[in-house]
Amino acid sequence: MISPRILVRTYLSPLVGTTAWFLQRVTGLLLLFYLLLHVETVHQLSAGPVAFDRAMAAFKNPLFRLLEIGLLGVVILHALNGIRIMVIDFGVATRHQKRLFWGLAVIAGALIFIAGAVPLFLHSVMGR
Amino acid sequence: MNKRIFINRSGGGGKRGWQNYALDCPPELTVLDALFVIQQRQDPTIAFRCSCRVGMCGTCGLQINGVPGLACKTRLADIGDKDVFLAPLPHFTVIRDLVVSLAVFFEQWRKVLPALRPRDPESKELAKIPAESTYARNTPGKRDCITCGLCFAACGILAMSKHYLGPAAINKALLRVLDPRDTAREERLDILNSSHDGVWRCHTQMNCVAVCPKGIDLTESIGLFKRRLLLKNGELES
């Protein structure tokens, strides 16, 4: 029986480029799901204000508030990693792609996320 | 320094699966040296390939802790962990243990018409390449490919599409397209423009640049072609 450690070492690439590529796909799919949900909710307006208010009421619970904060993280990561890929596509800093990923998409992304997520959490989840 | 070396063995009627070898060795030993020690002292049936032992020939490529690399250029001390996992390069057919066939790599290599097609094959005149020419400015460093296949093994796109030309073949095509003596420029550009296997299959993962033992900026070569093909009359300039 092959240990999970060996399987991870062999089949999960530790290369940063693959990790960034994989995250870009996953966050892209999550944003697509959000977009469909958003269009569906706005579409309720065609059924009148009562139907729209009912649809909006579903997003008032704390779970959706937390998911909203998660959405912020997904948007930031997807946007900053997208900028990194565009920069590299223009032939700039191809040799610094690892540093760009960690510096721009991860560290700068985390700082922007914290700056946005803390007020969001205090306002919409804690109600302050 | 104590190391445990796990080797993924298969093919050729030998042992199969992960085999574990314990090694007490000096830290300056390379992975290739360790393989020789294992073969000489513990298991003579283990198969691996090497030639120059100094990173010039590119024959000792294998997967070292999940990353393609040359066994002769990787020191055990640089790996850090106590355990070292060695497996054959992915995307290639395994002949036995750590030995793979590079046939699929050279099939793609041939597709880009790698040989020079001069205007006059009989000409005895030497080529004159001015230092300020596009060729001279864009090709230093890109001519060092040793066809080891590490970029091919590390490329995530080749894991999904066997038709993709791969970074090394595209880099070779760049050298030919930029060469002022060559006459098959448009033919090569058509091959590279293919949506099925051309440069558009590259998703800018840059694993090829990360593993190239010669430090060739392969993603830049692919990017140059992308920009040239988008801007129909654009120049291949970095």
Textual characterization of the structure:
The complex is a heterodimer of chains A (128) and B (238). Chain A has a single domain (16-125), classed as 3 helical TM bundles of succinate and fumarate reductases (Up-down Bundle). Helices cover 80% and strands 0% of the residues of chain A. Chain A has 5 helices and no strands. Chain A has helices at residues 4-11, 16-43, 49-57, 62-89, 97-125. Chain A starts with a helix and ends with a helix. In chain A, 16% of the residues are buried. Chain B folds into 2 domains: 2-101, Beta-grasp domain (Ubiquitin-like (UB roll)), CATH 3.10.20.30; 103-230, Alpha-helical ferredoxin (Fumarate Reductase Iron-sulfur Protein, Chain B, domain 2, Orthogonal Bundle), CATH 1.10.1060.10. Chain B has helices spanning 31-41, 76-79, 103-111, 134-138, 150-154, 167-178, 185-192, 207-211, 218-230; strands at 2-9, 17-24, 61-64, 67-70, 83-87, 93-96, 99-101. In chain B, helix 3 (103-111) packs parallel to helix 6 (167-178), helix 6 runs antiparallel to helix 7 and helix 6 (167-178) crosses helix 9. Chain B starts with a strand and ends in an 8-residue tail after the last helix. Chain A binds chain B through residues 2, 6, 9-18, 20-21, 85, 88-91, 94-95, 97-98, and chain B through 6, 8, 17-18, 63, 65-67, 85, 87, 154, 156, 203-207, 209-211, 217, 219-220, 223-224, 226-227, 238.
